[in-house]
Structures are given as structure tokens and as C-alpha cells.
Automatic annotation (TrEMBL):
Residues 7-80 form the Transcription regulator PadR N-terminal domain. It comes from the Bacteria. Residues 92-178 form the Transcription regulator PadR C-terminal domain. PANTHER family: TRANSCRIPTIONAL REGULATOR YQJI, TRANSCRIPTIONAL REGULATORY PROTEIN. It comes from Streptomyces plicatus. Pfam families: PadR, Vir_act_alpha_C. This is PadR family transcriptional regulator.
Length: 190
């Protein structure tokens, strides 16, 4: 997937400025497709030049005017074509998993703090996902009923929640294995 497609999806969900789009990438769509502010602004300029986006100048009091982007008809056609293309199943590149396998040739317990750090990061992400789910989809202030766009956003978020839960369970298994190996290596003196 190109960044252009993620931008088109986000702008179809809600038009906005480059800054607002970058914030959305930090908050929601960025959990599944990351981009820096510079990448987003560079791609927005190119998409504008290619006629994929409409741009409206919005006056702001006490600040420079901002550009608000929305998807133009050619942009919607590009997204529609992309949505109908097959997508290959993703391969997972996981540096930590390779390190864990490589630990067999060193001291496996040396990885404990690194695996704990990863577990904490995934726990933090899971908490953010669950907070967003309560805020946007399941909590008392969430819209009822959800429209089609919200239903699809929620199903993607549920996939992220399931992935984080699975990753945490795997990291817990890795930690238990590393602790067991450390204990065996120290002759049970651990």
C-alpha cells in the first residue's frame, strides 16, 4: 500500500489540513500505516499537483491561512481502483524473533530486559487501542448505531486489539522461557 491510499482513506473519512492529517496518523490510522509529518506533506503536495485532491484555503484569525484537503473525483477513482486490486498476504519481519532465536548462541537471559521493554510497549499500545475503542465505538458517548464507515474502522481496531493481545501473550511465553533457561543455566540458583 502506498501512503497515498492511506491519505485518501483518511481524507474521505474527514477532510482536513496537513497538520490535522498528521495528527490522525499519530492517533488512529498510524497504528497500521506510519508516516512522518514530512512524508505526509510531501505526498499531499504531489497528490494536489496530480489533481487527486481539492484544496481550500481556510482563513484563521491571528495565524496564517491553512489548506484544507479533500478527495477530488480522480482521487476517489484511484482509491476505488486500488480497493479492487488483490493484496498479497503480508510477511512478518520481526527482528526481536530473530534475536530470540540467536540467543541460543549466547546467554538467553540477556534478552529478558529487551523482551520486557517490548511487552511494556505493546501493553501501552493495547491500552491506547482500548481507550480509543471505548471513546469512539463502545462507550456511553459513542454514536449509536454505527454507520458503515464507523463499523469498518471498528473492525480494523478490533484486529489491532487482537494482534496486541496475541503479541503480549507471546512475549509472556518468551519471558517464561527465558527465565526457565536462566534458572537451568544457573543450576536452579536463580
Amino acid at each position: 500500500m502506498a501512503l497515498e491510499h492511506a491519505i485518501l482513506v483518511s481524507l474521505l473519512e474527514k477532510p482536513g489540513s496537513g497538520y490535522e492529517l498528521a495528527r490522525r496518523f499519530e492517533r488512529s490510522i498510524g497504528y497500521f500505516w506510519t508516516a512522518t509529518h514530512q512524508q505526509i506533506y510531501r505526498v499531499l503536495r504531489r497528490m494536489e499537483g496530480d489533481g487527486l485532491l481539492d484544496v481550500r484555503e481556510v482563513a484563521q484569525r491571528g495565524r496564517p491561512d491553512k489548506k484544507e484537503y479533500s478527495v477530488a473525483a480522480p482521487g476517489r477513482a484511484v482509491l476505488t481502483a486500488w480497493l479492487h486490486e488483490p493484496v498479497e498476504p503480508e510477511s512478518l519481519r520481526h527482528e526481536l524473533a530473530v534475536k530470540i532465536r540467536g540467543a541460543a548462541f549466547d546467554d538467553p537471559s540477556a534478552l529478558i530486559s529487551e523482551v520486557e521493554r517490548h511487552r511494556e510497549a505493546h501493553g501501552d499500545r493495547l491500552r491506547r487501542y482500548l481507550t480509543g475503542e471505548r471513546r469512539d465505538f463502545t462507550g456511553p458517548d459513542a454514536p449509536r448505531p454505527l454507520d458503515a464507515g464507523q463499523e469498518l474502522q471498528h473492525v480494523v481496531l478490533r484486529g489491532g486489539i487482537a494482534f496486541e493481545r496475541m503479541t503480549i501473550a507471546w512475549l509472556d511465553d518468551v519471558l517464561a522461557t527465558l527465565h526457565r533457561l536462566r534458572a537451568a543455566r544457573s543450576g536452579g540458583r536463580d
